[in-house]
Amino acid sequence: MAVKKFALSDGLEVSVYKRRTSRSIRLSIAASGNIRVSIPLWVPYRAGVAFAQSRHDWIRTQRRPPQLLLEGQVIGKNHQLHFRVSARATKVTSRILPEQVVVTHPIKVSPAVSEVQTVAEKAAIRTLRQEANAVLPPRLKQLAAQHGFTYQDVTIKQLSSRWGSCDQHQHIALNLYLMQLPWELIDYVLLHELVHTKHLDHGDKFWVALEAVAPGAKQLRAGIRKHKPVVLR
After folding, report:
1. Which domain holds residue 110?
2. Total domains present in the chain
3. Which helix (H) or strand (E) holds 219?
4. Residue 81 covered by a domain
5. Fewer CB in a 10 Å sphere around the end CB: N or C, the chain?
6. What's the CATH number where 198 sits?
7. Domain assignment present for 120
8. Contact, 61 vs 70, CB < 8 A?
9. How far apart are CA 135 and CA 127, in angstroms?
């Protein structure tokens, strides 16, 4: 999947992706605020940029201002975010402890400034990745054994718009942001990808198979739509 970044007329950055599976031009805004345009392989990048420019007013209304990461915020399943001011600090640093994500900043720097927030977000993502690597592969293996599925391997990725994926070779990818979801929705995503090892598309057979291993799949699907793959704020 090829991607290039461009700037719109007012400086907004847009990422244009060429996808083999795309049949038309599609515009989306990730939970992080990133603007994404997906285009077929045969469409020139400039057409994707022009499409985003033509939807400029819509983009402005849909993009939400960034919210701050806050003191005591829960990160994943086992961590809390804490800001620590230090008279000795000359720059913003972070540490991941067994149950804490600690961001240390100079005494004259507020936790609300972008420099501190950027360090905090990167530390939170590292924490989510650690938790995901520890929790998700064993849980996927357990669910596969329980319901009679097989797969080749599983990787943890930072995805901006999907919770997981499974390709035709049964390689499963899981989003590290899953650690921000309730446990029942985590299992739903894992079972969703396991069912894709037998049914790659989302046809009727797929949904029947998913309902068999995840009763109430439609309600769970509706529930997960209320969440975004982003560090919770």
Report:
1. 74-129
2. 3
3. helix 217-224
4. yes
5. N
6. 3.30.2010.10
7. yes
8. no
9. 12
Instruction: Provide, for the chain, the percentages of residues in helix, strand and coil under a 3-state DSSP scheme, each rounded to the nearest 5.
Output: 35, 25, 40
CA 191 to chain centre: 18
**Strand order across the 171-175 sheet:** 153-157, 171-175, 164-166
Angle CA 139–207–30, to nearest 5? 70
- End position of a domain, from candidates 129, 156, 173: 129
- Amino acid (1-letter code) at residue 224: I
> What distance in Å separates the CA atoms of residue 170 and residue 186, rounded to the nearest whole number?
19
| Same domain for 139 and 114 | no
Confidence label for 65 from pLDDT (cuts 50, 70 and 90):
low
- For CA atoms 224, 51, 59, 30, give the dihedral sign: positive
Residue 11 pLDDT > 70, yes or no?
yes
Residue 232 lies in a domain: no
Question: In degrees rounded to 5, what are phi and psi of residue 155?
Answer: -125, 155
Are 103 and 150 part of one and the same domain? Answer: no
Do 112 and 41 lie in one domain? The reply is no
- The pLDDT tens digits of the residues spanning 66-124 come to 678 999 999 999 999 999 999 999 999 999 999 999 999 999 999 999 899 999 999 99
For residue 76, the 8-state DSSP code is T
